[in-house]
Amino acid sequence: MGAQVLAFGDGSSEGDPKRRDLLGGKGAGLAEMARLGLPVPPGFTITTEVCTRFQGEGALPEDVKADVRAAVAKLEQSLGRTFGGENPLLVSVRSGARASMPGMMDTILNLGLTRAGVTALAGTTGNARFAWDSYRRFLAMQGSVALGVDKHHFDDALEGVRLKAARTKGLDVTRFNSEELRRAMPDSELTAEVLEEAAVAFEGVIAKHTGHPFPQDPWEQLWAAISAVFRSWNNPRAITYRRMHEIPDSWGTACNVQAMVFGNLGATSGTGVAFTRNPSTGENALYGEWLPNAQGEDVVAGIRTPLPISKTEKSKGTSLEESSPAVFAEFVSVARRLEGHFRDLQDIEFTIQEGRLFMLQCRSGKRTAKAAVRIAVELVREGILTKHEALQRVEAKSLDQLLHPTLDPDAPKELVARGLPASPGAASGQVVFDADEAERKAMAGLPVLLVRTETSPEDIHGMKAARGILTARGGMTSHAAVVARGMGKPCVAGTSAIHVDERAGQLTISVASESGQNKIVTVKRGEVLTIDGGAGAVYLGGVPTVPAVASEEFLELMVWADEARKLKVRANADTPVDARVARSFGAEGIGLCRTEHMFFDDERIAAVREMILAEEKPARERALAKLLPQPRGDFIGIFREMNGLPVTIRLLDPPLHEFLPDKDSQLEALAATMKVPLARLKSRVRELHEFNPMLGHRGCRLAITYPEIYAMQVRAILEAAVHVQREGVSVQPEIMIPLAIAKAELDRMKVIVDEVAKSVFDAESVVVPYLFGTMIELPRAALRAHELAETAEFFSFGTNDLTQATLGLSRDDAGRFLPAYVEQGILEKDPFVSIDVDGVGELVREGQARGRKTRPLLKVGVCGEHGGDPSSVRFFHQAGLDYVSCSPFRVAIARLAAAQAALEGPVASTA
Amino acid sequence: MGAQVLAFGDGSSEGDPKRRDLLGGKGAGLAEMARLGLPVPPGFTITTEVCTRFQGEGALPEDVKADVRAAVAKLEQSLGRTFGGENPLLVSVRSGARASMPGMMDTILNLGLTRAGVTALAGTTGNARFAWDSYRRFLAMQGSVALGVDKHHFDDALEGVRLKAARTKGLDVTRFNSEELRRAMPDSELTAEVLEEAAVAFEGVIAKHTGHPFPQDPWEQLWAAISAVFRSWNNPRAITYRRMHEIPDSWGTACNVQAMVFGNLGATSGTGVAFTRNPSTGENALYGEWLPNAQGEDVVAGIRTPLPISKTEKSKGTSLEESSPAVFAEFVSVARRLEGHFRDLQDIEFTIQEGRLFMLQCRSGKRTAKAAVRIAVELVREGILTKHEALQRVEAKSLDQLLHPTLDPDAPKELVARGLPASPGAASGQVVFDADEAERKAMAGLPVLLVRTETSPEDIHGMKAARGILTARGGMTSHAAVVARGMGKPCVAGTSAIHVDERAGQLTISVASESGQNKIVTVKRGEVLTIDGGAGAVYLGGVPTVPAVASEEFLELMVWADEARKLKVRANADTPVDARVARSFGAEGIGLCRTEHMFFDDERIAAVREMILAEEKPARERALAKLLPQPRGDFIGIFREMNGLPVTIRLLDPPLHEFLPDKDSQLEALAATMKVPLARLKSRVRELHEFNPMLGHRGCRLAITYPEIYAMQVRAILEAAVHVQREGVSVQPEIMIPLAIAKAELDRMKVIVDEVAKSVFDAESVVVPYLFGTMIELPRAALRAHELAETAEFFSFGTNDLTQATLGLSRDDAGRFLPAYVEQGILEKDPFVSIDVDGVGELVREGQARGRKTRPLLKVGVCGEHGGDPSSVRFFHQAGLDYVSCSPFRVAIARLAAAQAALEGPVASTA
Question: Which residue in the set B778, B820, B825 is minimally distant from A808, CB to CB?
Answer without folding.
Answer: B778
